[in-house]
Specification:
The complex is a heterodimer of chains A (218) and B (291). By secondary structure, chain A is an all-alpha fold. Helix content of chain A is 72%, strand content 0%. Chain B has helices at residues 27-39, 48-56, 58-74, 84-96, 103-114, 137-141, 152-169, 188-192, 197-208, 214-217, 241-244; strands at residues 119-124, 226-230, 270-277, 283-285. Chain B is elongated, with a radius of gyration of 31 Å. The termini of chain B are far apart. Classes of the chains: A mainly alpha (218), B alpha+beta (291).
Chain lengths: 218, 291
């Protein structure tokens, strides 16, 4: 969506046009949700944060400074909502990584509902690996690779110099690759003892992307 | 060269190119910098020097291959969600709910209007979202103690005061001449303290529709002062002399500098009424209705 088109939607939505609000919502909810989910590893938390961020943004559009991009503002608020939630609840999602890959996978699965798709996400190797990065590394990696943000914008969002963002990004990539290697080894051994190897592990062994939609993992 | 490991879960289960490495030749550092630059989109993967290094070193080549695969893997997003109905429903629900008044405006003005409470306002760093044009502290506070009540911020402040009084006391609020409870600023005590006891009682009684007189109801108290405490409003800010010396602002905690409007973030604050003193000197939580 071009900036001008988005601005027109914002103006319409701020005048109470629900269709425009809905368009903004549909355009950005996936990105915000993916960002928060990748940061915290909890599906329900990501949904709650996304909802709250949109409610706050859409109900205060009159305060929006048009010199900025709507998405920048939205993601800033989403980040703040999530950080506030972390402060209040001190969840395990804030980066207290267990060093055991298997334990982390189990912890992640415990936080999920019984929905099959969500369980399969818990076995998402990338998510497991991301949770082992520092929050700064994770955020830099997620924004750059998942959301395709330029480093300049990430630096602004994270309130860090560009060089520091690059450093987090580079270390995050390398560590993620290493953690995938280490973690997949652990999980494979555990699952082999249990008589099964998760599909994500098989894929990660060859670093092969998994399909987007949920599917059976065993 | 494979990293030695004692972990039986590693090694045998992994393809050789996925194993970790150490004791590396010096050219790998240079190559890794270039790989990262490629992944950052700053350098083409066809850069001759990188190609040369990759050709010379199969371990590096496998590592670069892994990083590129990781790059693809990382573009994979979780399944999309549709929160449209939830968000729009919540928006409608909040619109229909009664709006809360600003604790700053309401609380501060209520103290002025009632003339009956020692009021503490705690400034928290509520965060100021990028792009927001929320009013600054100065815009909120300045109209209260200074001059005639003619500015529109002051009008709304006084309206807020009525709402605050109603909310705090649980009593309906009637109109009262605004000059009854506005004072020019001279000293901290002038903010509230120069109303004499009769005026104070009268204003409070009128404003809060109290009957019988407040003293008999045990609600009126002597005014001490109105103070605000700044709590961690943000790092690396320069104190603003005008605000720092403003007695209306009360105490400014050391090291917590604050400058309104200097940046587009964190220069606004949330104000919470943290407590009141009743006529017996008891401290009541700010949220406690003073019935």
């Amino acid at each position: 969506m071009q900036k001008l088109e988005e601005l027109q939607l914002v103006r319409r939505a701020s005048r109470g046009d629900l269709t425009a609000a809905e368009l903004l919502l549909r355009r950005h909810q996936g990105g915000v949700h993916a960002y928060i989910y990748r940061m915290c590893g909890k599906w329900d938390v990501a949904e709650d944060v996304t909802q709250e961020a949109f409610v706050r943004v859409l109900s205060s559009l009159k305060n929006f400074d048009e010199t900025y991009r709507f998405s920048t503002w939205l993601f800033t608020i989403a980040r703040r909502v999530w950080l506030n939630m972390c402060e209040k609840k001190k969840p395990a999602s804030a980066g207290d990584a267990s060093d055991s890959w298997g334990a982390r996978r189990d912890a992640l699965e415990d936080t999920m509902t019984r929905d099959h798709e969500q369980r399969s996400m818990a076995r998402d190797a990338i998510q497991l690996g991301l949770m082992l990065l520092s929050p700064e590394q994770r955020e830099a990696v997620v924004l750059f690779h998942q959301l395709d943000w330029p480093i300049r914008l990430i630096a602004e969002h994270m309130e860090l110099p560009e060089g520091t963002v690059k450093s987090h990004l580079h270390r995050g990539r390398m560590r993620l690759k290493e953690e995938l290697v280490r973690g997949v080894g652990e999980v494979v051994a555990i699952e082999q003892r249990a008589g099964s190897v998760p599909l994500f592990a098989k894929r990660a062994l060859t670093l092969e992307p998994t399909p987007r939609t949920g599917e059976a993992t065993r | 060269m494979s990293r030695p490991t004692n972990n039986p879960n590693l090694g045998p289960n992994l393809p050789p190119h996925l194993r970790l490495h150490r004791d590396e030749p010096p050219h790998r550092e240079e190559a890794r910098r270039m790989m990262q630059a490629v992944l950052d989109g700053e350098v083409s993967e066809d850069a001759p020097r990188l190609q040369e290094l990759l050709r010379q070193d199969p371990v590096l080549s496998a590592e670069f291959d892994d990083l590129q695969k990781l790059d693809i893997l990382l573009t994979q997003r979780p399944p999309t969600v549709d929160l449209t109905e939830r968000v729009l429903g919540e928006l409608q629900r909040r619109k229909a709910a009664p709006q809360r008044i600003s604790p700053l405006l309401g609380g501060l003005a209520a103290a002025v209007a009632l003339g009956s409470a020692a009021l503490w306002l705690v400034v928290g760093n509520a965060g100021h979202p990028a792009g927001s044009t929320m009013p600054t502290l100065a815009a909120n506070v300045a109209p209260v103690p200074v001059g005639a009540p003619s500015s529109s911020p002051e009008e709304s402040l006084i309206d807020d005061a009525r709402l605050a009084i109603q909310q705090t006391t649980g009593r309906p609020v009637r109109g009262v001449p605004r000059d009854m409870f506005t004072r020019s600023l001279g000293s901290p005590s002038d903010v509230l303290g120069e109303m004499d006891q009769t005026t104070r009682r009268f204003v409070a009684q009128r404003e809060a529709s109290f009957e019988p007189p407040i003293d008999q109801a045990g609600r009126a108290v002597a005014i001490s002062r109105t103070g605000m405490t700044f709590v961690n409003p943000g790092p690396s800010r320069t104190p603003v002399a005008k605000l720092a010396n403003d007695p209306m602002l009360g105490q400014i905690v050391g090291g917590s500098d604050w400058q309104p409007g200097a940046t587009r973030r964190r220069d606004n604050a949330r104000f919470l009424v943290s407590g009141w003193h009743d006529s017996d000197g008891n401290t009541l939580p700010g949220a406690t209705p003073r019935r």
